[in-house]
Amino acid sequence: MEKKAAVIQYPGSNCEYETARALREVGIYAEIFRWNRSVDELDEFDAYVIGGGFSYQDRVRAGVIAAKEPIMGKVMEEAEKGKPVLGICNGAQVLVESGMIPGNNFGEVEMALATNIMKRKGRIVRRGYYCDWVYLLSSSKKARCAFNLGIEKGEILPMPMAHAEGRFTTTKKGLLDELIANDQIVFRYSNEDGDVIDEFPVNPNGSLSNIAAVCNPKGNVMAIMPHPERAFHPWQTPYFVEKKGMGRKLFESLAAFLKGDRDGAL
Amino acid sequence: MARFDVGIYVKLKIPDVVAETAFNTLVRRMGYADLLDALDREDYWLISLECANSDEARRTAEEIVMKCGAIYNKNKHTYRIALAGETLGDKSIDVLVWSKGEDGLAAYVKSTLVNTLGFKNVLDVKAGVLWKIYFKNSVSGDARKELAERIAVTKSRKEGLFVNPHSQDYKVLLR
After folding, report:
1. What share of chain B is helix, strand, coil (3-state, %, to 5)?
2. Burial class of residue A93 (count of CB atoms within 10 Å of its CB; 0-12, 13-18, 19+)
3. Measuring CA to CA, which residue among A78, A261, A64 is closest to residue B26?
4. Nearest-CA distance from A197 to chain B in Å?
5. N or C terminus: which one in chain B shows less Cβ crowding within 10 Å?
6. In angstroms, what separates the C-alpha of B34 from chain A's closest C-alpha?
7. What is the ipTM of this complex?
8. Of A203 and A262, which is predicted with more confidence?
């Protein structure tokens, strides 16, 4: 039976159509689901994707208003049952503000996605919005979560980023150690050769430990700041990036996860 | 010469959609309908000046407001100035929120004031947002601070809105 994914659309979302198209390309039925539909209609879906953009115009703080909507309460319920949830960019911010990511104490807000601060040689060289192609180093073991089933540790995936608040940060003592110990840091910003350097432009937003994507302990929820749906087709990748269409791997992984194929071989 | 901390409060003349959205969320999604009367928001600038006396500090602050478009635009803002220790006489309980650590906006404005506009006596600039919470009369004075704190600090999806404590600092200001 065809698996179904809901792509949640808030006022201010973007890339929901690209995301739905990427899901369809890997054999998942995808529907754009407006935030104000009856939340019970979400029951019939097997997976949820919260896309990028500027939900509620980023009012108060990126992702926080969307996190308070009843639809996120329902998504949290479904995630607790084990259904996969992917948050891309603004979706990642929504997951962090909902307390689903990192989810070590599910429901508790344990991190923030703060304003980008780009540093080089100890000095701030730039702040705020940044848009570029970046390299993501697969940092956790293959099949750690629903979105890296077919991705070997050490693999490098070029992807575009476009955000002003993408700096993973926390004041919670020991949380970073916990994320590392639990292998929850799925992708880190690196250079083309896979070197993780905490300097701009390799770390494009000053993110703690170069974090680009984090999953919850169970591995069914992941927040990622760069946009895999914008790197899905080879033709979306610019000439100066050698590896084409690598974002597809995340969607293929989700498709495999939904089919119960945990090795990720579609 | 002495150091004077001057607060500049800048507010939109038109309805503030950010405050409206926050109020709606608190009332419609977070269960505060019976407790809240209204919510307002102001930009807050704390400017530390080196001046001979408080009159000079106030005059300098007025001049800064008039010259620095990043702080105030007369077409869309109103402003108030208060020196440290002065109160504005508002009936609200206020929550002041600012970024933890380095604040790019404040750094930019300080640089503009000192290097571009020539205010060499500006020692420091801090930028924040002042959330002004108006409780219903049924909420007693003692409960207001505790409620303001609960409304402010985001602990979970259901608790808190204005501050993510991992990236922001705050202070509840009682009148």
Report:
1. 30, 35, 35
2. buried
3. A64
4. 21
5. N
6. 18
7. 0.94
8. A203
